[in-house]
Every structure is written in structure tokens, then in C-alpha cells.
Design brief:
This protein is α/β, with parallel strands linked by helices and 471 residues long. 36% of the residues lie in helices and 19% in strands. The strands form 3 sheets. An 8-stranded mixed beta sheet has the order 3-4-5-2-6-7-1-8, sandwiched between helices.
């Protein structure tokens, strides 16, 4: 099997000396596992620029069984030479080049096995969207930590479809794109609001599935799956998700993504007085405020407890190390020093410089806010119907404008929306909920405040125009 054009382009950038993290996201069955095996085969081949004698290279997948797919591609390429020793048991697989003692170690996405990556030149991460939520995050954290160790020249190469993960740590770098020492290459269908059946057109399907040009059987399979999607909405969602790499396929269950407002419109100004949505966290949770101006500009801030420390909160919430600290450094996450529960007055003091026209909050927290400020407060009933109205307003603002998010606030909002899901009821209404209802550490507070302010902005009457009278 020869490298396709998109694979050559990816390798040219991913293997560049100034790139330490590379991500390729494309639909399923387009040679991702084979590409991972190709990279690892080169690592194990003396004389290849990627080969470093005596080093240990790593393949990471959701499970040993998942990794076995890549492993078998690599083994098939080099097995006949007699220069390698292979391990292939139920619980362990690997390859060793006998004369140079260069090894391939295979790991599942369990962060406990990721320690000791010092001195590893390359990690190939196969189908990261299939890694379990907590384990996947912890493994990503372990790889990042290894990259930051003194003397480490670890290059991490992530290859996979965005599904089955709907958001989170794997989606974030793909959405952020190429920057600094990170290279990202994506083939992903975008929903066309003006053409309901855009996804059925073969030129569109072929554009995101490059191997259809050389594989007639693959073409036939995709055509059959497309036809099935026309008859069954569930099959349509699956086709969009896996065959067009489009995570916005099932919009009924996914809140707006960062890609929605990046494409909507340029950043608006801060003229006038904003509406501010507030979500007060219970217990040790964060509290959040989101301001929305008439221009569509959105800014957000959150207040976290000062005890435990930010580093300890990252460990407790099982997020990659440094995630919360970056928000603190950006000035959008404020610690209430010495407090285990963020104070309401701390949040109010932070939003006062915005000059809020009014505050919108959940009606059950109205009294707490009223005691701390003279800013007009409008409590919002949180029934399913009202929640659906506010969420519709947010989706409309994000996709059609005028919603635009300040750069400092973007990471905070993106992270919070990643912890949220849209839950539907039997009457056709819906509301925002935590992605994992059992996870009390899910940081959905900013997302909740964003939904409140979007609904308020949608209901706010247009400003009155001055009456000039007769000439």
C-alpha cells in the first residue's frame, strides 16, 4: 500500500523538527491505522531518519485489542526479514529489533501505564476518540507531561476520527488548529444550512473520504450507508459522525461548539451596557458570569475556591495538568483566596466594571444575589420550556450571528460547553445538563450562565430610535 496524497502532506508536517504534537482527523476507513503502522515501521527500521537505536517507541490505543490492528499492519511489513522479535499474547504485544534493541511498546489508554515515557522519541496515538473519557484525559495529560520534561524530545502523533467522543480533550486541539509547535490536519464535513441533503451528494462524500478514489468496494459501502441514512435518521447521524467526521451531526444532543461562533462573525464592540447571566455554583463548585453586549460580543469569567489549590482541583477533576492554570493566567478564572466556597460578593465585584444593564439568574439563587448588589436582577424560571427557549437563542446566535467570543473567554467557554450535553424530554423541550450526571466536578457553570444570557439577549427589545419630527 502506497501513501496517499493527504497522508504524504500530513507526514511532511508532522515529522518536521519544529513540531512536537501532530493530529490527523479524518473519517473512518481512510487508512489511519495503516498510517500509524507506517510511522512505527520506519521507527523500527535501521537507516531510516526516524530510527534511533536502542530507543523505545510507543503505540497507544483504547485497548490492546484496538492496538492490535495497527500492530498487525506493522508486523506484516517487517516480519519476513528475520531481524525482529515479536510478542503477541492476550495481554501484551510488542516488537524488538534484535541487533539494535530498538523496541515498540504497546499501551492501552490507562494513564497508570503511561509513566516512564522519558526518552521515548515518538508516541503514536490511535483513535483517541475511542479512549474512555477519564482514562483518555489522563493519558493525554501523561503524554503532555512527558513532553515537558527536561531533555525530552517526545513527538506525539494523534490519528483518528472525532467520534465516538462528542467533545472534550480530543476535539479541543482539532478545533484549535495549527499553531506554534502543533500541526493539525482535518477532513471534516460541515453542515450546510441551505442544503438539507448536502451530505447525500457523492462529490461531498468523496471529498472527505479520499480512499474512495482507489477502492471500489469502499465506494459501494459508503453509497449503501448513505442510502440507509435517507431512510433512518439514526443511520444518518451515524453516517455524518463516522463517514463525514462531522460531530455536529446530532445537534439535538450537542451544545454549540467553538467552531460555530468562530465562523459566525467578527468580534463585536463593548459599547453600551451588557446583560449578564450568572450561575452560582453549589458547595465547592465554581460560580460563573457571562456578559453579552448588543453587538453580540460575549465575555466570561469564573470564580473558583482558593482551597484546594488550582493544581489539586485539576487532579480532582481529572483534567490535563495546567488546564485550569492557563485560565487563571488568562484572567478568566479567579480564585477566591482562602475560601472553600466562592463568595457571591467576589463574583459581583468582578462583573461591576462591565456596567451590567441587568443580571439574569436562576430563580432559586435570586435572594443571594439581591443581598449583594443594587444592579437590577431578573430571576429566570428553569422549567423545560424556558430552558429550551434560551438554548434555541444560543444556537441561533452562535450559528447565524451576531455571537462573537473574546479570545480570553474562548477557552473558558469552550471547556465548559465540553462538559455539557443537551437533554431532551418527551414533549419536545430540552435543556443543558452535565455531560456526566454522576460527575459532580463537571465544570458546566459557564455554559449555564451563557445559556441564560443568550435567552435574555434574544428577549431584549431593540433600542428605541430618536424621533426627529417634521422638517
Amino acid at each position: 500500500m502506497k501513501l496517499a496524497g493527504f497522508q504524504k502532506r500530513f507526514l511532511a508536517q508532522a515529522l518536521a523538527a519544529d513540531v512536537d504534537t501532530a493530529a490527523l482527523s479524518i473519517p473512518r476507513d481512510n487508512g489511519k491505522s495503516w498510517l500509524g503502522a507506517h510511522i512505527l515501521t520506519r521507527c523500527l527500521t535501521p537507516g531510516d531518519p526516524l530510527h534511533q537505536p536502542g530507543k523505545e517507541y510507543v503505540l497507544c490505543a483504547a485497548s490492546i485489542e484496538q492496538a492490535r490492528i495497527v500492530y498487525r499492519f506493522a508486523r506484516a511489513e517487517i516480519e519476513g526479514s528475520g531481524e525482529y522479535h515479536f510478542i503477541d499474547s492476550h495481554t501484551r504485544i510488542g516488537i524488538t529489533h534484535k541487533s539494535t534493541n530498538t523496541k515498540l511498546r504497546v499501551m492501552s489508554s490507562n494513564a497508570k501505564t503511561a509513566m516512564g515515557l522519558v526518552g521515548t522519541p515518538i508516541v503514536v496515538a490511535d483513535e483517541p476518540g475511542s479512549w474512555e473519557v477519564n482514562g483518555g484525559t489522563l493519558m493525554f495529560d501523561a503524554i503532555q507531561t512527558a513532553q515537558g520534561k527536561p531533555g525530552s524530545k517526545l513527538k506525539a502523533i494523534y490519528i483518528g476520527t472525532l467520534a465516538p467522543a462528542e467533545s472534550g480533550w480530543w476535539h479541543d486541539p482539532v478545533d484549535d488548529g495549527t499553531h506554534g509547535s502543533t500541526y493539525v490536519q482535518v477532513l471534516r464535513g460541515r453542515i450546510d444550512k441551505d442544503d438539507e441533503f448536502w451530505w447525500t451528494k457523492w462529490p461531498e462524500i468523496a471529498r472527505f473520504n479520499p480512499l474512495t478514489r482507489v477502492d471500489a468496494g469502499f465506494r459501494k459501502k459508503l453509497q449503501e450507508e448513505r442510502d440507509g441514512g435517507l431512510k433512518d435518521s439514526r443511520l444518518k447521524a451515524r453516517f455524518l459522525f463516522y463517514r463525514l467526521n462531522s460531530p455536529t451531526a446530532d445537534e439535538a444532543n450537542v451544545p454549540p461548539t467553538v467552531a460555530d461562533w468562530k465562523l459566525a462573525c467578527p468580534l463585536g464592540d463593548v459599547e453600551g451596557f451588557p446583560m449578564v447571566g450568572i450561575d452560582l455554583g453549589g458547595g465547592r463548585a465554581w460560580s460563573a458570569a457571562v456578559a453579552g453586549w448588543r453587538s453580540g460580543r460575549i465575555e466570561a469569567v469564573a470564580v473558583a475556591p482558593g482551597i484546594p489549590s488550582i493544581e489539586e482541583q485539576e487532579v480532582r477533576d481529572r483534567v490535563p495538568r495546567g488546564t485550569y492554570q492557563k485560565l487563571v493566567d488568562a484572567g478568566v478564572l479567579i480564585q477566591d483566596e482562602g475560601r472553600r466556597v466562592p463568595r457571591v460578593e467576589k463574583l459581583i465585584s468582578i462583573i461591576k466594571p462591565w456596567g451590567p444593564e441587568a443580571i439574569i439568574c436562576d430563580r432559586f439563587r435570586f435572594n443571594e444575589l439581591q443581598d449583594e448588589t443594587t444592579i437590577p436582577i431578573y430571576p429566570r424560571v428553569s422549567r423545560w420550556s424556558e430552558a429550551a427557549e434560551d438554548l434555541r437563542a444560543l444556537r441561533k446566535m452562535a450559528k447565524d450571528g451576531p455571537m462573537s467570543v473574546g479570545m480570553e473567554s474562548r477557552a473558558l467557554i469552550q471547556a465548559s460547553l465540553g462538559q455539557s450535553r443537551v437533554k431532551n424530554d418527551d414533549q419536545g423541550s430540552f435543556r443543558l445538563v452535565k455531560r456526566d450526571p454522576k460527575n459532580n466536578t463537571g465544570r458546566d457553570d459557564v455554559a449555564a450562565a451563557l445559556v441564560l444570557v443568550a435567552g435574555a439577549m434574544d428577549r431584549r427589545p431593540a433600542p428605541r430610535r430618536a424621533y426627529l419630527g417634521a422638517a
